[in-house]
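Course assignment 3, question 2. Fill in each field.
Student: A.L.
Task: Predict the tertiary structure for the chain below.
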Amino acid sequence: MISLIVSDLGPEVTSQNVGSWFAKRAKREAGQPRMTRKTPEQLAILDESFARYAYPGNEELIRLIRTTLLSKRQIDAWFCHQRKKFPQLIEAREIQKYVSALEAAAALQPGEKPKGLNTHPLEKMWKEVEAERQQTLARPSHS
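Answer field:
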């Protein structure tokens, strides 16, 4: 009942709504912008990568993080937005990948596993890449 009076979020206020509100307030009070525009150089790098990969793999993501100094989350969001903008392109690529995967699977011997499957946990790797990105951003030449 109180949420109806106090909140413009509607009759239900979830813990996610509250957490998001406090996180945005903390950033605002710290003087951090909510969003920053990507530079033309960053966009050129992202566009070039998207032309090759609608769903970039880990190696490509690491390369993009290092060259653009954007976070993994920013890069993932950009690719997601691009895929939504160009669904026909993505569908054609996915069909081709599926056909290629079927052809590769047909060539395997019984019991043979496909090569290139990474079974290592990725969380540690992403933390290391993000720490490297933060260190690069903290250098005086990037301030």
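Instructor remarks: DSSP finds seven helices and no strands in the chain. The radius of gyration is 21 Å.
Grade: pending
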